[in-house]
Amino acid sequence: RKEVEQDPGPFNVPEGATVAFNCTYSNSASQSFFWYRQDCRKEPKLLMSVYSSGNEDGRFTAQLNRASQYISLLIRDSKLSDSATYLCVVPTSGAGSYQLTFGKGTKLSVIP
Amino acid sequence: EAQVTQNPRYLITVTGKKLTVTCSQNMNHEYMSWYRQDPGLGLRQIYYSMNVEVTDKGDVPEGYKVSRKEKRNFPLILESPSPNQTSLYFCASAYGGGFTEAFFGQGTRLTVV
Predict the structure, then answer these.
(1) Measured between CA atoms, how close is B24 to chain A, in angstroms?
(2) How sure is the predictor about A1, in pLDDT bands with cuts at 50, 70 and 90?
(3) Which residues 65-104 in chain B show a CB within 8 A of chain A?
(4) pLDDT tens digit string along B64-87?
(5) Interface touch A46/B102, C-beta < 8 Å
(6) DSSP codes joined into one string, chain B
């Protein structure tokens, strides 16, 4: 069974702080990885894709370490609006299958 | 507007009464899937479809059926709902399988009493 494990959280951080989440995966054949953001009781929405060693988008940086099979998400200069649950997602696709395996999520609360 | 639409958004039903949750996407995506989300368990895949008439089981398919007769629609059918199927359900679609973004519907909160 393919597993995706995330930091359990919750993370409570002050505005302006830098926070990092880790995610480990068991399927060494995985080629792409995603971070989704989910607000309370809402649908998940894509935050970042990671196909190679890493990706950066403004205050958000995702890094991939294939040898250790983990992905990290770094948020710099946290805003109140960053409060959400962050989901690590590892897809399996090809050869007649399409499966997304989700981590259980890490809850972030940014406090004033 | 590109979107995935689920209906109904909220549903309370009784044990054993067949129900269907509809899912429709307007992005011409080939891949569609259903998930359930439960506290402490995260999102788990129920069924997926890679194209019209092509469906397969995910991690938790027991008690559910799906069909994909048209590219845009992927309904989830509960033939005989039970209380353990009380959950938050999401439908999603994607253009290129696991290497592309999945777009989610707004969710259906189902309660089976």
Answers:
(1) 15
(2) low
(3) 88, 90, 92, 94, 97-99, 101-102, 104
(4) 999 999 999 999 999 999 999 999
(5) yes
(6) ---EEEE-SEEEE-TT--EEEEEEESS--SEEEEEEEETTTEEEEEEEEEETTEEEE-S--TT-EE--SSTTB--EEESS--GGG-EEEEEEEESSGGGSPEEE---EEEEE-
